[in-house]
Write a structure and sequence with these properties.
Elements: H1 2-16, H2 18-47, H3 57-102
Helix pairs in contact: 1-2
Length: 104
Amino acid sequence: MIYTDIFTGLHLWAGESIANWNQLVGGSFVLFFISFAIIMRGYYLFNGWNIFNSGDERTSRIIACAAAFMFVAFMWQIFFLLKYSIVFLIGGIYLMWQHHRDFS
Protein backbone atom coordinates (compact mmCIF):
# COMPACT_ATOMS: atom_id res chain seq x y z
CA MET A 1 0.00 0.00 0.00
CA ILE A 2 1.31 3.42 -0.90
CA TYR A 3 0.46 4.88 2.51
CA THR A 4 2.65 2.40 4.38
CA ASP A 5 5.47 2.71 1.86
CA ILE A 6 5.63 6.47 2.27
CA PHE A 7 5.26 6.73 6.03
CA THR A 8 7.07 3.65 7.34
CA GLY A 9 10.44 5.42 7.46
CA LEU A 10 8.92 8.46 9.13
CA HIS A 11 7.14 6.27 11.66
CA LEU A 12 10.33 4.40 12.52
CA TRP A 13 12.31 7.63 12.84
CA ALA A 14 9.67 9.28 15.06
CA GLY A 15 9.52 6.22 17.30
CA GLU A 16 13.25 6.17 18.01
CA SER A 17 13.18 8.92 20.62
CA ILE A 18 11.07 11.61 22.24
CA ALA A 19 13.17 14.30 20.56
CA ASN A 20 12.34 12.92 17.11
CA TRP A 21 8.65 12.82 18.01
CA ASN A 22 8.77 16.42 19.25
CA GLN A 23 10.50 17.48 16.03
CA LEU A 24 7.76 15.80 14.01
CA VAL A 25 4.98 17.50 15.98
CA GLY A 26 6.71 20.88 15.95
CA GLY A 27 7.47 20.60 12.25
CA SER A 28 3.83 19.71 11.58
CA PHE A 29 2.65 22.84 13.41
CA VAL A 30 5.14 24.99 11.51
CA LEU A 31 3.98 23.43 8.24
CA PHE A 32 0.35 24.08 9.23
CA PHE A 33 0.97 27.76 9.95
CA ILE A 34 2.97 28.22 6.74
CA SER A 35 0.18 26.53 4.78
CA PHE A 36 -2.42 28.73 6.44
CA ALA A 37 -0.41 31.84 5.59
CA ILE A 38 -0.10 30.72 1.96
CA ILE A 39 -3.85 30.06 1.74
CA MET A 40 -4.63 33.49 3.21
CA ARG A 41 -2.15 35.14 0.85
CA GLY A 42 -3.64 33.33 -2.13
CA TYR A 43 -7.13 34.35 -1.10
CA TYR A 44 -5.97 37.95 -0.79
CA LEU A 45 -4.34 37.84 -4.24
CA PHE A 46 -7.50 36.60 -5.91
CA ASN A 47 -10.24 38.35 -3.93
CA GLY A 48 -8.65 41.04 -1.82
CA TRP A 49 -9.61 41.21 1.83
CA ASN A 50 -13.28 41.66 1.01
CA ILE A 51 -14.87 38.43 2.23
CA PHE A 52 -18.12 39.11 0.39
CA ASN A 53 -16.43 39.74 -2.96
CA SER A 54 -17.36 36.89 -5.30
CA GLY A 55 -14.58 37.67 -7.77
CA ASP A 56 -14.81 37.10 -11.51
CA GLU A 57 -15.14 33.88 -13.49
CA ARG A 58 -11.42 33.12 -13.48
CA THR A 59 -10.76 33.70 -9.78
CA SER A 60 -13.93 31.90 -8.69
CA ARG A 61 -12.78 28.78 -10.56
CA ILE A 62 -9.28 28.96 -9.05
CA ILE A 63 -10.64 29.33 -5.53
CA ALA A 64 -13.11 26.48 -6.10
CA CYS A 65 -10.28 24.21 -7.30
CA ALA A 66 -8.16 25.11 -4.26
CA ALA A 67 -11.10 24.35 -1.97
CA ALA A 68 -11.66 21.02 -3.75
CA PHE A 69 -8.03 20.00 -3.27
CA MET A 70 -8.17 20.97 0.41
CA PHE A 71 -11.41 18.98 0.81
CA VAL A 72 -9.89 15.86 -0.78
CA ALA A 73 -6.83 16.07 1.50
CA PHE A 74 -9.10 16.59 4.52
CA MET A 75 -11.33 13.66 3.60
CA TRP A 76 -8.25 11.44 3.23
CA GLN A 77 -7.44 12.17 6.89
CA ILE A 78 -11.07 11.62 7.92
CA PHE A 79 -10.97 8.23 6.19
CA PHE A 80 -8.00 7.18 8.32
CA LEU A 81 -9.68 8.57 11.43
CA LEU A 82 -12.77 6.53 10.64
CA LYS A 83 -10.70 3.43 9.95
CA TYR A 84 -8.83 3.68 13.25
CA SER A 85 -11.97 4.52 15.21
CA ILE A 86 -13.59 1.33 13.91
CA VAL A 87 -10.50 -0.64 14.88
CA PHE A 88 -10.56 0.80 18.42
CA LEU A 89 -14.30 0.18 18.68
CA ILE A 90 -13.86 -3.47 17.73
CA GLY A 91 -10.98 -3.79 20.20
CA GLY A 92 -13.10 -2.25 22.95
CA ILE A 93 -16.03 -4.55 22.19
CA TYR A 94 -13.70 -7.55 22.34
CA LEU A 95 -12.31 -6.41 25.70
CA MET A 96 -15.82 -5.91 27.12
CA TRP A 97 -16.86 -9.35 25.84
CA GLN A 98 -13.72 -10.95 27.29
CA HIS A 99 -14.30 -9.20 30.65
CA HIS A 100 -17.91 -10.36 30.71
CA ARG A 101 -16.89 -13.92 29.81
CA ASP A 102 -14.16 -14.06 32.47
CA PHE A 103 -16.34 -12.78 35.31
CA SER A 104 -19.56 -14.63 34.44
